[in-house]
Each structure stands twice: as C-alpha cells, then as structure tokens.
Protein: Sodium/calcium exchanger 3-like isoform X3
Organism: Crassostrea virginica
Amino acid sequence: MSTCPESYTCSDEGLLLPIVSEASWPIGARATVYLIGLLWSFMAIAIIADIFMSAISTITSHTQEVKIPDDSESGYKTIEVLRWNGTVANLTLMALGSSAPEILLSIIEIVFNDFKSGELGPSTVVGSAAFNLMVICGVCVIGIPSSETRRIKKLKVFAITAVFSVLAYVWLIIILMVNTPDFVDLWEAVVTLFMFPILVILAYILDKNYFGSASVDDETGLEVGGEDNLLSQEHADKQVIVEMLRRLKSNPDADEKEVARLTAHLMEQNQHHNRAWYRINAIRTLTGGTRLTTPLTDKSNELLETLLVAEEAGGDPDFIHLSEGGKKAIVEFESPSTAVIEKEGRVKINVIRHGNLDRRVLFRIETIDGTAEATSDYKPLKKTMVFEPKETLLSFDIEIIDDNTWEPDEVFFIRMTIEPEQQAVLGKHPVTQVTILNDDEPGTIQFANPSFLFKESVGCAQVKVERINGCDGRIVAKWKTKDITAVGGRDYENTSGEIVFEHGELTKMIEINIKDDLEFEKDENFEVDLVEVDGGAKLGKLKRCVVTIVNDDEFAGFVDRIADLTNANLDALRLGKQTWAKQFEEALNVNGGDLETATAFSYLLHFMTFGFKSFFALIPPPTIWGGWLCFFVSLLCIGLITAIVADLANIFGCLIGLESEVTAITFVALGTSLPDLFASKTAATMEKYADSAIGNVTGSNSVNVFLGLGFAWVVAAIYWTSKGVSFEVPAGSLGFSVAIFTVCAIVTLILIVVRRVVGVFGNAELGGPKTPKLISGFFMIFLWLVYVLLASLQTYGYIEGF
C-alpha cells in the first residue's frame, strides 16, 4: 500500500506525470531526471515528426496526368504533375508537420486544464516563432559562403506570409490588451482561426498570379506559379556517368560501387527538394537514422576530390547540370576555342542551344582580356542575345584590329551568363577562347592534347594536330606510331606518314585505322610522335601523344552497372516507399543499415533513440492508403508525446523555480525548433533560392497562431460561452511577450528586405559579402536574445506596466 502523501513539491504541475511517488526524492535529483526526460522527449518528438512528415510528403507527392499540345502526330503529349500546389502544401500540411508539437501543446493544455488558458502553450507558440524568424534566418544568412547569395524566388508569396506573420501577433495584442483585455470572445477566436484559410487562399492567388499578367511556361503551358509541381528526375543519366568516368580515368580506385555512390550523392545534392525533405533529413541526421542523401565513404570522397581537381585543371564546368534532364535548355559556345588570323579583321563565334527547345532564352555575352587587350587588339563586346523557341544556333562577330606589327599569338575570352530566372543552364562550354594568330610566321606544330581516347569500334581514329604562333606558308609534318600495350597490325595499323598544312591552315587530323577484333580485351594504348617539320616551322611541347583504345562492350556494361547501382541508391532514398519490414530494418540498424559510413556519434545517437525508433516502427507506413493512415496515427502519437513534454517542462520549471512562460520560450521552443534550424541551414546551402530556407518560416509562424491558438481558443470559447461567461486569457506576460516579439519581428523583416535591395549586402536575403553578412546575421540572433531577456525580466516582475 502506497504511503506517499497526497501532494508534495510540484506534484500537481503535470497532467500525466508523475506516475510514481517522488516525495522522498531530493529536489536536485528530481530536476535532473526531468531535464534528461525533457531533452530525451524532444528526440522522440523529432522521430515521430520524421514519420509524420514522410506521410505528408507522400500525400503531397500524388500525381495526375495532364495533356498539353505539342507538334506530335497526336497533337498533344502527356506529362505528370503534382496534384498539390507547392504553396498550398507548404502552408497547410507542411506547416502543420513542422509546427505540430507547438500547435498540439496549446490544444492539449487547454483541453486537459478544464478549458482554462495555460501559460506553456501560448508562450511556446510565441517563443518558437521568435527562434524561427530571428535565429534561423540569422544562421541562414551567415551560413552561405561569402562568394554566394540566395534570393527569395516567390517574392509575392513571401510578402503575404510575412505580412500575416506580423498581423497574427498584432491581432493577439488587439484582442488580449485592447478590445477585450484578458478575455477572448467567441467571435475573436473564430476570426483568429479563419485567418488561416484566408492566408492560404491569398497566397495561392499570388502564387498563381491571378491578379497579374499570368506568366506561362513555354514547355507545359502551365502557369509559372505551378512549375514546381513538375516531377523532378529520379533516375541516373548515363551521360553524367560517362563524363564522371572520363574525369576519373586517372584514379585507379574508381570501382563501380563507389562511382555509383558518388553519382547518387551528386544527383541528390543538385535536385530541388521541398521543406519536408530538408526537415526529415535534419531529423534523421540528429537521431542516427537513414539519411536522404547518399553518404560518401573515404574512397568516394577521394573520387570527389579527383573531380574537383579535374575541374580546377580545366575540366568542363558544372557538368552535373546534365542531371537536370530535359526540362531546361542548355546553352553553350559551339567550341571551347577559336583561332583567327589577324589580317582577317573579324572572327565569327557560334552559340548553340540543346535540351529543351520550347522556351525563349535570354543570355549575355561579354569579352574578357587575356594577353590580347580590348581596343588595341580587338573591339570589346557586351550584349544580350535571345534564342527564340526552336532556335538552336546563333552567331555574332567580333572585330579584330590588325596593327601591322609582328606579335606572338594573343588570346582573349568570351564569357556567357544566364540569369537565374531563365529556364536554362550553361553547358560544358560557357567560356570560349579566341586566339589571334600572327600571320607572318610559319608557326609551331604540336598535338592538340597529350592523350586521346577512342572506342575499339571507331574504325578510324582522328588525332588532332594544331598549328600555333603563325600560319604563313606551306608546312609538311612527318609522324609515326609506336607500340605500348597495343600491338601494331593486330590492334591498329602501325603506320607512318605526313600531314600538310597549306598557307593559313591551323588544324589537321592524323588518321589511324583501329581494328575491332570483337573480343574482350583490357584498355590498350600506343604512341604517336611528330618527328619532323619543314618550311621553317618548329615542333611544339606536345610532340608526343598517347592513344588509348577502350573495349566498347565492357565500357557500356560498366556504365550500365553503375547506372543500375545509382538508381538503387536513389530508390533507397525516396520517401513514401517503405514497407513495415523496411521500417523495422531501418529502426533497428544505425544509419538505417548503412554501416560503412556510420560514425561513433551515429552509434551514440542510435543507442539513445533505439527505443523510440523501435516503437514508432509500429506505425503504418506511408504506402498504405496514400499516406493518410500514417498521417493520423502519427498525429495521435505526437499528441501523446506532446502531453508528456508539457508535464516534463512544467514540473522541471517548477523544481528549479523557472516560470512556465520562461520555460516555454527557452527549453521547449528550442527543443521543438532545432530540427527546423538544421533543415533550413541545409536548404540554404543546397538550394539555388532562399524559399526552402527562410520562405517557410513566416508561413509557419502564422499557422502557429491561427491553428495553435485559434483552434484551441475556439473550443474553449464555445465551452465558456455555453456557460454564459467569456473565455479568460490573462494578457500579463503573454501580452508583453507578443508585443516584444512583434517589434523584433518587424525589425528582422525590414532587415531582410534591406538585404535584398541594397548592394552592400549582395542584393539577396542570404549570403553576400562577408562583413555585411556577419553583421546582419548576428544582429538577427541578437534580437532573439533581446526578446528572451526582456520577456523573462517581465515575467519575474522586473518590468512593470503589463
């Protein structure tokens, strides 16, 4: 029989806790236990929120087929688009997913407190909003590399959610401190709740541009506001794999498994992801779960370094854009280099467009000095050019100045740029080099490259030889081949010969017949040497080159195997594809079973969360009933965990003498918002725009008030109105906290706007020059500290008048 007294210190602060008598426990021990329990429960909330967001991602990823006109025989083509508009999804299910703990905490506190207003729920809503807006935005501003910037793309949607995020808290001040001080009438609660659908409708209208000139996507006929609904590529592009293998040819560790891992990693890094993806990935990183990006092993990291070295050594820039598929046009110079004889007076440059040909694409070209100088060697050019739909080739001329004095060959460059809003990317040749050749010297003869690669079935290998530093007169160059691992007469025709450069000619090809024996062989190579030139010309540095013959069947099979492994890696990352068995497998294993990349910290996190993972694996997977069953079961579990969090926070605060309002804006707000911080930081660095990083913060802050407080207050107001009295919500500390937050929020939003329009900040919400970036980012975080400090001081009576 229990002998515990009916009450003891802080025993009446919880709804469910304590479950055993703690009367004999020291206060310090109890506080420690409750603190550990509170922090541990935040991890439980994070894990169940991961499952909840997976269900939401599955629901919002449902597709429908849309027929659009094209030039085919049928007159149309069928594409798949997402049923959910991106903005509506972000403000409804996505916002609910990220804010569910705060919203449910407010509702549960009122329902289980005899429909009386509590301190923890409303203060957590305000505290989380402060952390989200000031700290998350500040971290995202600082976290962008100094040479980069991120701008909000859907500016109209961000503007309306920003206005409503301030309006929501101004409305709280009005009803709590002005209109009906310390009470909330039923109509006020209803208005608070109905601001939520009003926000969603207005944001949708602005997203679709219904009040402006609708911008239509040339490819799909869909309005630009809906282009995010188009499905992204989910399969490996063999062209990307071949390009990677070309760059990795000098690395002997480029086995197919590691190349596939690296390919999947790069493709996933360069895909656009929604808010749910970033939040789920952040939670899984914090809990040692299955990450949504393919982690790199030591070997694949070495391969990545090889790629970066190849990039710095002059490789084709930004080749991973090839993984974006056919949705965007690819614009580039036809050739990476062009030569012109000085006396010709002008050089013609070609620009090509491939990929998507249905859009109108604007791009800019600009000349840049090399050893050749503008105005003295050539006339500079800076202009905007336009590819009209279906147009694939454009040309322009640059005037060359003939000064009638001998000079060595000189070069200048032409750079191409494309604005981010254009539905196009730069191809392999965004810069071309123009060489101005002196026409009074016979020149220097050399190979174009130190090595050449040909398939065994090519038939005839053409090895390029260049003439530089002059092109006067007729030149004859003699060449011969030399065996290395390839055998002359069996693998290629062991020949020698000569090539003739007529006056003014700059390039010639040495043709060597390659024999295909239709048998599997390893790669083989032989050497080609330039041995002699006449006519006063000289041999250059590259007078030898190596020709490598690769077996076609083996190479194609190698690429196919990498593509299959890459697709398997990508499929493993896709949300909404889990079965119950897969859920338990991932829950019971660190990193979801990827032990190769697991660290000691991963094992620690997995050990700490093993129980929660195992229990929550019982929740139906998102594959059942389109994700809705998982949605409601997860929501129920979040409610249960949130009730426990409320008890832990109240009792812990009581034991250490911390007021509930202060506990809410510090411990609880931070615990529920940390996954959002990591998600936004990752989105800021990975995405091209700032929408996924900070664009959702203002929307979530509004939804917290409209649903978290609005729904709970409507329920309580109906209850008390039925009894003939008004619902009492003492303003007190809550009113002061809301007022301080509103001021800090307005200052933060003004700073974000200033960053976008003022050049010293880089004309962008995130990133920019280092010093302005650090000043503005830390100032936002400082505003949060000011809010916490002032709200805490008022709660303890150091600030009077509220």
User: Anything to note?
Assistant: Confidence is low (pLDDT under 50) at residues 1-5, 214-233, 312-326.
